[in-house]
Specification:
single chain; mainly alpha; 2 helices
Length: 82
Amino acid sequence: MTNCRPTSLLTSFSTVFGKVLYDRLIKHIQINSIVVEEQFSIRNSSSAHKAAFKLLEEILNALNNKVMVGGIFCDLQKAFDC
């Protein structure tokens, strides 16, 4: 009996509330064009593969036009405790 906890409906409510809030927020962002095309993580039709492809495409276009290319990459894995 000491390990038993009462059942709570809060988790079900918070899950449904979170999904409703997410749907409304995404619609607001899309209607008002808040997110730019270069933001790959939020949009549904986007992925990390598309982000990598876009980066590679930009680098190859710059190299074909004989433009100097440089990059700075940050590993944020530890910052988000992954």
